[in-house]
Amino acid sequence: MPRIYDWAAREAERTVTVADLRASRKSGKRYTQVTAETAEEAAAAEQAGIEMLVTRARNVEAVRRGSKHLFVTAALGFADAVTQDDILRTALKALSDGADAVITARGMATVSMLAAEDIPVVGHLGLVPRKSTWLGRLRAFGKYAEEALALFQRFRRLEEAGAFAVECEVIPARVMSEIRRRIGLVTVSLGSGPDADVIFLFTEDICGGEGRRPRHARVYGDLQALQERIKQERVKALSAFRADVTANGFPGPQEISDIADDEYAAFVSRLKDSGFGD
Questions:
Q1: Measured between alpha carbons, how far is 88 from 84 in angstroms, rounded to an integer?
Q2: First to last CA, the chain
Q3: CA distance readout (Å), 8 to 68, 110, 212
Q4: Least trusted range by pLDDT, from 17-21, 128-132, 221-225, 253-257
Q5: Is 178 a catalytic residue?
Q6: Do residues 110 and 84 touch, judged by C-beta distance below 8 A?
Q7: One of 41, 46, 167, 169 is an active-site residue; which one?
Q8: Where are the transmembrane segments (predicted)?
Q9: Mean predicted confidence (pLDDT) in 213-220
Q10: Model confidence at 133, in pLDDT bands (50, 70, 90)?
Q11: Is the model's pLDDT at 98 over the cut of 90?
């Protein structure tokens, strides 16, 4: 496992580095990436052999408690950091907390600003859900020749701006393959086919959590059923507790502390002597 120093000058080991990701374009090695917002989710990903994580910038510390080794990319939220100074400060804080890179869906000026500080920057192209009003609906981006060509030009501009990688979301697989052959960016496919350096899915989708699952996701678990059982068990337990209290069944002898008879008698005697009798 490669040894590095992180952005807080701490010695660390990582499953993969930026250099490894760049080298993978020639070697053909593919990595896996999932989301994590908690130490528990990060630990599960590491135990499962996943190499890379994405988390919100404010959750990097928690994620690092769960995984010391996985490559962590911190997402810079639109509302969390607004001005260029805010964005740079948030990025550097996330890196100091243990992130290895940052991802932003902002414009090329922001990418250039971050890259100028030698920060590993991941762009976001294709379907960017927060910007989907421009498309009119959630759909694959690059389905038409002119749209695909314009998308290719965005990839080129992103690379020129200094990004080292790009999240490619819901781009037709054949379009993605043609673009990838013509750029130097590390490609992270989220619903954009197998021809990429990193294959990415949301943990919630993989594990079958609550909510609508996108077409490009494959479900490997059934957390939703477990979560429903947990909800039912919670209500069942709370109802039983209330019923026990109402019926004077709780607390019982096993849930209370007792006092020796002689000590209790001495206590009551002293109460009476102090004028606090019956």
A1: 6
A2: 75
A3: 14, 23, 39
A4: 128-132
A5: no
A6: yes
A7: 169
A8: none
A9: 88
A10: confident
A11: yes
Tell me the residue type at 196: A
Q: Are 89 and 100 a contacting pair, CB within 8 Å?
A: no
Alpha-carbon span 277 to 259, nearest angstrom = 19
Structure tokens at 220: 């490997």
DSSP, residue by residue, the chain: --EEE-TTS-EEE-S--HHHHHHHHHH---EEEEE--SHHHHHHHHHHT--EEEEEGGGHHHHHHH-SSSEEEEE--TTT--SHHHHHHHHHHHHHHT-SEEE--S-HHHHHHHHTTT--EEEEEE--GGGGGGTTSS--S--SHHHHHHHHHHHHHHHHHT-SEEEEES--HHHHHHHHTT--SEEEEESS-S-SSEEE--HHHHTT-SSPPPTT------HHHHHHHHHHHHHHHHHHHHHHHHTT-SS-GGGS----HHHHHHHHHHHHHTT---
> What pLDDT sits at residue 209?
86
- Classify residue 93 by burial, with Cβ atoms within 10 Å: 0-12, 13-18, 19+: middle
What is the C-alpha separation between 115 and 15, in angstroms, rounded?
A: 23
Tokens of 274: 């102090």
174 contacts 195 by C-beta, under 8 angstroms: no
Residue linked to tokens 């414009």: 107
Beta carbons within 8 Å of 159's beta carbon, 6+ residues apart: 183, 184, 185
Neighbours of 161 (CB within 10 A): 19
